[in-house]
Amino acid sequence: MSGEQELYWKRNSTKSEGLTIAVVGPRTIKGRNAVLGLLERVNRHKSIAALVHGGTPGPELFAAQWAAEKGLRVACCAADWVTHQELGAVERNRRMIEHYQPDGVIVFSGAVFGDDLAARAGAAKIPVMRPALPQGA
Questions:
Q1: Is the sign of the CA dihedral 29, 39, 24, 112 positive or negative?
Q2: What residues are paired with 23 via a beta bridge?
Q3: In angstroms, what CA-CA distances link 126 with 74, 77, 79, 80, 118?
Q4: Domain ranges of the chain
Q5: Which residue pairs, CB below 8 angstroms and at least 24 apart, start in 42-47?
Q6: Which residues pair with 128 in a beta bridge?
Q7: Could you state, in chain order, the average pLDDT of each consecutive group of 10 residues for the chain (137 residues)?
Q8: Are the C-beta atoms of residues 23 and 60 closer than 8 Å to each other?
Q9: Under CATH, what is the fold of the domain 3-129?
């Protein structure tokens, strides 16, 4: 998504209509139902209006598909490995927090650079949920 699209998406979301949630997780989690169950519980507790994800297979794409099926706004904030090389995920995490300003972050255990995203969210006073799902489940 281009910077212009990111600004449009951010400007056109209002906190009154629900939460913006960022989701990251490892490719090794295959349990779609467990991921969707967690999102449903969060959505019942506090309505989700938008979801930002990193674009990798597993929990991130499960979450993106769930949000799209519900008609929510969805943004992919993928790591740019070419430009940032080994720091691609760190730069992605910075963009997730600064550009989208999520109301909450879900970091599934085992996510590469998940600790970095959780630390950035914590520094920005954004609540972090760290559910543990079995790898390969």
A1: negative
A2: 53, 106
A3: 19, 18, 21, 24, 9
A4: 3-129
A5: 42/104, 42/106, 42/129, 43/70, 46/18, 46/19, 46/104, 47/17, 47/18, 47/19
A6: 105
A7: 45 67 89 93 94 93 96 92 81 93 91 86 94 68
A8: yes
A9: Rossmann fold (3.40.50)
